[in-house]
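Z., the sequence and structure:
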Amino acid sequence: MNSFLDAPGFLGTNATVRTDITLILTLISAALFTYGWRLAVRRRYKTHRKVQTAGVILNTLVVLLVMAVSFVKYILPGIPGKLGEGSYGITTLHALIGLAGMSLGLFVVGQGNGLIFKGVRIRNYKRLMRVTYGIYMLATLSGVIIYIVVFIYGI
């Protein structure tokens, strides 16, 4: 299976199949978050909760199974010495933004699904949901930029 995932990708860049699948799944997560946001605007809160939960689960799985492993294997050993070289700096920034978005997303979905202890809950968490959405979109944008820089321009 690893040999298949490490084969040249299908998007016509220098990426592997694993990286192309990761990009597609990340974009699907972003689409789910945006669709869920639109559902909330239309006051379809039950469906909104389900869509956002699916988006957070998908995104968290991709982050933990692929992105975190790649970061620890390829980027972390070069920190702090190589932060100014190649894609080390932008990848580290992306990881920090993504970690913040994923953590907030897990909290928001946990609260929305009644999984957060009462003492930790936020009463009106609409602002937190908006901030979390913004951070997720920033993480997605930075991920797409990294994909382009690394796998199209080869920096």
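Residues 63 and 69 are 8 Å apart (CA to CA). Residues 24-151 form one domain.

Let me know what you think.
H.
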